[in-house]
Amino acid sequence: MARTRKKTTPAYGFFVEFEAKPEKEGDLVRFLTDAKSLVDAEPGTPVWFGFRLGPSSFRIFDAFETEEDREAHLQGEVRRQLELRGEELFAVPPKITPVGLPAAKLAPH
After folding, report:
1. E-strand spans in the chain?
2. What pLDDT does 8 receive?
3. Taking the model in full, what pTM does it have?
C-alpha cells in the first residue's frame, strides 16, 4: 500500500551557496537542471529551487515537512553529485546551511 503523505507547511529547509569556477557557469546551470530531476523522485522534498544570483553565484533552497525528510535529502543523490563534481565545478566548497521555516505560503496545485 502506498504511503499517504499529510500535506503540511514545510518547517525545515536548506540554503546552499555555490560559486562556479571560471568558465564553469554553464556546467553549473546544467548541474542544477539535472539535479531537479533527481529531486522530483524524492517524495519528501516538496519544495526545491535552484537559482542564480549573478554571473558565477548560484543557490539552492529546499524545504521539507519533517526533519527526517530533510535528513534523507541531505544523504541523497543530489548531495552525492555535489561531492562527485565539486572539484570540477566549484571555486570553493558549497556552503550548506540548515534553516527553520517559521512561516511559508504554498499555493495549492
Report:
1. 12-19, 47-52, 57-64, 95-100
2. 78
3. 0.87
